[in-house]
Amino acid sequence: VSGTKPMGDDAWTRHVVDGGQSFVANTTADFAPLFPDHAQINALGCHSALNIPVFDPAGAVVGTVNILHDEGHFTPERVAAFRALVDDHTPALLHQIAGMDLTGG
């Protein structure tokens, strides 16, 4: 599944896009201030979020892999395993991102 959301100049953007770091929120309270759609996320039965940046060959963040789950799911070990999966599949992710219409049209 792929999609887009508008990005603002907020703590999430500075951490993930500008800082190139994964965002881990293991409770709704951790992500609700940053995710305006937190009620929809909770309605899906999800109460934790992991956002992993995808880097182009120059090191710029060009997208994120976003995973939702039960509260408390994203242990350091799981985060590391998901990061490794993203790293292993970066060429395919970059190909997919390149084909996306990010203009909203």
Descriptive notes:
There is one protein chain. Strands 1-2-3 form a 3-stranded antiparallel beta sheet. It has 5 helices and 3 strands; from the N terminus they run αβααββαα. It has a single domain (11-98), classed as Beta-Lactamase, CATH 3.30.450.40. 38% of the residues lie in helices and 19% in strands. It is globular, with a radius of gyration of 14 Å. With 105 residues, the chain is of the alpha+beta class.
Largest sheet features: 3 strands, antiparallel
Q: Write down the CATH class.
A: Alpha Beta
Order of helices and strands: HEHHEEHH
Count structural domains. Answer: 1
Extended strand count = 3
Level-2 CATH architecture: 2-Layer Sandwich
Radius of gyration: 14 Å
* Derived structural class: alpha+beta
CATH topological fold name: Beta-Lactamase
Quaternary organization: single chain
N-C termini distance:
18 Å
- The outline comes out as globular
Could you give the topology of this structure?
Blueprint: H1 11-18, E1 23-25, H2 28-31, H3 38-43, E2 48-55, E3 61-69, H4 76-88, H5 90-98
Antiparallel strand pairs: 1-2, 2-3
Q: Briefly, what is this?
A:
The chain has five helices and three strands, in the order H-E-H-H-E-E-H-H.
Describe this protein with a few key phrases.
105 residues, alpha+beta, three-stranded antiparallel sheet, 38% helix
